Inverse folding.
C-alpha cells in the first residue's frame, strides 16, 4: 500500500496503524479516508494480521476530527453523499479483527468514528474527549449515535450538547466505560502493543467470530442475536479448536485487573 497520512506496520500478527498528521492534530482529510479504505481492505484479506492497534503521532492530539481547512470530497448530489465513517470505521467495513485504540491528548468529533468501533480503548492520563459540533452550529448526530452504544445515554448527550464548553477527562472516561485503562503517557503505546499481542496469540478464528457475534448483536433483538451467535459457535469452534492444536498455544499466567 502507498499510504500518505498514516504509518502502517505488521509484526507478530499485530498491525500497528499510526495517524501521522500531527501538524494538524491528526485531523482527517480525503487522503486519510482513502488510506483507511485501503487499510481495511488489506487487513481484512491478510490472514497474517490477527489484531490492529490504532495510535497517533505528535504530542497534542489523537485526532480532532475532519480537517476543516482541507475538507473532504463531497458528491454534488446531496442524496449521493456518504458519511466519512464508511471509510474510517472498521466494523462498517466488516473487519472483525480486534481494534485496540491508544488515545492521548485531544480526541474530538470525528475521532469517535474509531473509538465507537474499537474493541478496546485505553488512554494516557492527559487524554480529553469532546465533540465540538454544536458549538459551530452543526448537528451532532453520527458520532453520538455510535457513542450511545458504548456509554450511558446521559453521558453521550452531555458530550454532544456541551460542545466546546466541557471536555471529558481520562478519569471520567474510565468511570463511564469509554476507556478500560488509563496510563502514563510514556507507557501508552507499549501497553497497547502488549494487549494486542495477548489477543493475537489466541486462535484467530475464535477471536474474529467473537468480535463479529458481539458487534452484530447490537443491530438485532436479543433472541435473534442469540440464535445467530449459536450459529457462529457452530461454524467457528471447529476452526478455532484446530488452530489451538496446530499452534500449541501456551497457557499464560493470568493477571488481575
Amino acid at each position: 500500500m502507498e499510504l500518505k497520512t498514516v504509518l502502517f506496520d505488521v509484526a507478530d500478527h499485530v498491525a500497528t496503524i499510526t495517524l501521522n498528521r500531527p501538524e494538524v492534530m491528526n485531523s482527517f482529510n480525503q487522503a486519510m479516508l482513502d488510506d483507511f479504505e485501503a487499510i481495511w481492505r488489506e487487513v481484512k484479506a491478510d490472514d497474517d494480521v490477527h489484531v490492529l492497534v490504532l495510535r497517533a503521532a505528535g504530542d497534542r492530539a489523537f485526532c480532532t476530527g475532519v480537517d476543516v481547512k482541507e475538507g473532504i470530497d463531497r458528491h454534488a448530489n446531496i442524496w449521493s453523499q456518504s458519511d466519512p465513517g464508511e471509510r474510517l470505521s472498521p466494523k462498517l467495513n466488516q473487519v472483525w479483527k480486534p481494534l485496540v485504540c491508544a488515545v492521548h491528548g485531544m480526541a474530538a468529533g470525528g475521532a469517535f468514528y474509531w473509538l465507537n468501533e474499537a474493541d478496546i480503548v485505553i488512554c494516557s492520563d492527559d487524554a480529553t474527549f469532546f465533540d465540538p459540533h454544536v458549538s459551530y452550529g452543526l448537528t451532532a448526530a453520527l458520532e453520538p449515535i455510535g457513542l450511545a452504544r458504548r456509554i450511558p445515554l446521559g453521558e453521550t448527550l452531555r458530550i454532544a450538547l456541551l460542545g466546546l464548553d466541557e471536555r471529558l477527562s481520562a478519569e471520567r472516561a474510565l468511570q463511564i466505560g469509554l476507556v478500560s485503562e488509563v496510563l502514563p503517557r510514556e507507557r501508552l503505546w507499549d501497553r497497547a502493543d502488549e494487549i494486542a499481542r495477548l489477543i493475537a496469540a489466541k486462535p484467530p478464528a475464535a477471536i474474529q467470530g467473537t468480535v463479529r457475534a458481539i458487534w452484530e448483536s447490537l443491530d438485532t433483538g436479543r433472541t435473534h442475536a442469540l440464535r445467530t451467535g449459536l450459529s457462529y459457535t457452530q461454524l467457528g469452534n471447529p476452526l478455532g479448536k484446530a488452530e489451538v492444536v496446530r499452534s500449541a498455544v501456551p497457557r499464560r499466567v493470568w493477571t488481575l485487573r
Remarks:
- The first helix runs from residue 30 to 45.
- The first strand starts at residue 6 and ends at 11.
- The radius of gyration is 18 Å.
